[in-house]
Amino acid sequence: MSTTSPAADPVVSSVTPEQVAFFHENGFLALDPITTEDELSWMRASYDRIFAERAGREEGNQFDLGGADEEGMEARLPQILNPAKYAPELRDGVYLKHAEAICKQLLGPEATGGPGHAIFKPAGVGAETPWHQDEAYWDPSKEYTSVSVWMPLQEATIENGCLWFVPGSHRREIVEHRSIGGDPRVHGLEAPGVDTSGAVACPLKPGGVTIHANRTLHYAGPNTSGVPRRALILGYSLPARERAEPRRFPWNEVKRTAREERRRAATAGAKA
Description:
Layout (H helix, E strand, L loop, with lengths): L16 H10 L1 E4 L5 H16 L9 E3 L13 E4 L12 H14 L4 E10 L7 E4 L9 E2 L2 E7 L10 E3 L12 E2 L9 E2 L9 E3 L6 E5 L4 E3 L8 E9 L3 E2 L7 H4 L4 H14 L1
Antiparallel strand pairs: 1-12, 2-3, 3-4, 4-14, 5-13, 6-15, 7-12, 7-14, 8-11, 8-13, 9-10
């Protein structure tokens, strides 16, 4: 089944009715580049700078998504939340205009959002991102209608960690999750034993995007290539609503991460 936009369109700024229908049926969509090579060039430079500086670490916005995040240990899956805080140039660009326009087509004109986080997979050692649903990280008292726009700043391949999706899984409830490896010191989540039969890999050109819903099961393999895998993730959503029925996400309640300790210390210091 085809998940990409027509090859004749050099920079994608909108989606067709057929692509909108595909997204709502399958819970994900893959598109050709939504930005230019010139823009990708300066974005890569900004991205590499903030990861080299470990921007946001003291306030808990930079951490190892796939490990215990201990000082002095090499991160296997480093992440930076709100990267535009540390690289303000990321708040502008063709990629944001096109991503917003596309997400409004998928969700409706009230959808809002922007740069959410950045995940880096170092060449040769970058860890896998286990199967999970994004909503499993969020406030369980809310009902969400949102999407994540995942954009690689270089080619995304199976070898360096492109995304995989389970078609139709966005219609499931939130499945049981746990911290990766069952270690509550790890921020990242996994859904062990989940049915991933029929999963679809989505390699992308530089600046291409996948878009997936908040409950879509997805995964990214390890980076076994000689090229660093840079991914910028944008989030767009409609206003969240209070759920009529209560629920709990116990896997988040038991987390005890170094990242959260740094965040609390930074918050307390700011109030002092």
